Amino acid sequence: MVNLRLIARLDVKAPNLIKGVHLEGLRKMGDPQQHAQSYYEAGIDEIIYMDVVASLYNRSSLHEIVQRTAEQVFIPITVGGGVRSLDDVETMLRSGADKVAINTAATAQPEMIGDVARRFGSQCMVLSIEAKRRPSGEGWLAFTDNGREHTGRDVVEWAKEAVDLGAGEILLTSIDQEGTRKGFDVELTKAVSQAVTVPVIASGGMGTVDHIIDVVKEGKADAVAMADVLHYKRQPFSEIRAGVVDAGIATRQS
Amino acid sequence: MTNEVILVDYGVGNLLSVARALEECDARVMITDDTTKIKQAERVVLPGVGAFGDCIAELRRRDLVEPILEFANTGRPMLGICVGMQVLMEIGEEFGEHEAFGLIPGRVQPIENTKADGSPHKIPHIGWTALELPEGRESWNGTILEDIESGQTCYFVHSYTANPTNTENMLAVSDYNGRRIMAAVQADNVYGTQFHPEKSGEVGLKVVTRFLEM
Questions:
Q1: Which residue of A97, B167, B174, B191 shows the fewest CB atoms closer than 10 Å?
Q2: Closest partner residue to B126 among A1, A67, A199, by Cβ?
Q3: The domain A5-246 is classified under which CATH number: 1.10.275.10, 3.20.20.70, 3.40.1060.10, 3.40.1190.20?
Q4: Closest CB to B157 among A119, A123, A252
């Protein structure tokens, strides 16, 4: 049995941790590094930092936050948002990130996925997909820039293509569910997880432990990202992990 | 004992995280590719990420293979992490066959791409997986894993696994859907971990601390 990974996702608009609904309507939540540190101490398995404005303004100041975090947080850190070149990847890795999550740049130049995988290893090339259900209700479309720009790509087809190019993991965010606390998009997660051979992180919609159980058992997620439930301290992380374990899902033992 | 550690810099890997974990455990870290300093080091840590062939090629290009072998032969403690562990073996099979340090007999081969029951599973193996005593080994006393209990988990991310020829070089194994993963190897003073001690929280820091006491 493979241990489910429980990941804290921190969306950042430097210098603040922010939280929105459907990736919009952002509310400031304080110092991201302090949040990351407390989640680490509470036993979270990984940290994802996502710069939510970087690709809009062509900039990223996230690497300084990453650097300070990596000084004290001894678990894997993934960084996304505004990573658009091999130099950006190198800057993030040198700042202490273990993986980079790439969306906009990968959809604009899919060959970048292979370039990153060859130079730094596919283990650090995470494809970030923002998925929105098609108006018809059948299938999902891939978006960028926090759901503002659509790429014309079908999510499942794009995931398969990216894995063939060298993506080592997929961070799959449901824009429809994000910030709603109504549960993950289980159908979306299942469609992508069964279509690819690499691990899939389900993101967007986590409200209760039952949502995790659904997206793992039904949706075949390899990892789940949570934000709201942690940032607003709605439930202690130890309770979340215990609830998952009680449902018969294995997680790490520390 | 000053706890000085040479962290070999050959242009790959998340050096900052490894350095920070060592410092957290009270080591004095020097990041360098200076061959003289490596040969004279008290302890050496060899990191590594990416492809096996690229790592060994870069070590060769920087003339680091011979100094590291010379260091390993002094009997002073050495630790390879992830691909830094894999290159301790004789041959790697990632993107062709590549000769490596050969400090530990055996090969580095792809993780089988199915579960033990033949159904497909995810590669790379990413996540927190339990360390277990290999068959025939009674304890981790006297090794870098002395403070770890069998069943405690560490963070792995890899698609290939070392397969030592001799069981005495197998320090810890892990199970990935019924497939054996070599979690740690040892040949006397030379240690290697497939998992990332610098990314494995408190459990990982215990491994680092013990390495600094070897």
A1: B167
A2: A199
A3: 3.20.20.70
A4: A123
What is the largest distance, in Å, between two alpha-carbon atoms of chain A?
47
* Min Cα separation B148/chain A (Å): 10
Whole-number Å distance between alpha carbons of A102 and A86: 11
Is pTM beyond 0.90 here?
yes
Catalytic residue selected from A130, A169, A178, A222: A130
DSSP string, B110-154: EPPSB-TTS-B--SSEEEEEE-BPPTT----TTSTTTTPPTT-EE
CA B46 – CA B13 distance, rounded (Å): 10
Distance, in Å, from the CA atom of B84 to the CA atom of B81, rounded to the nearest integer, reads: 5
At residue A22, the pLDDT reads 77
The region, left, alpha or beta by phi > 0 then psi within -120 to 50, assigned to residue A139 is left
**Cβ of B122 and A168 within 8 Å?**
no
Q: Which chain A residues contact residue B177 at CB under 8 A? A: 1-2
Pick the CATH number of B4-213 from 3.40.50.880, 3.40.50.720, 2.60.40.1180, 3.40.50.300: 3.40.50.880
Q: Is A64 a catalytic residue?
A: no
Q: Which tokens belong to B164?
A: 């030592």
Chain A nearest-CA residue for B94 = A121
Q: What ipTM was reported for this prediction?
A: 0.92
Which pLDDT tens digit goes with each residue over B75-101?
A: 999 999 999 999 999 999 988 899 999
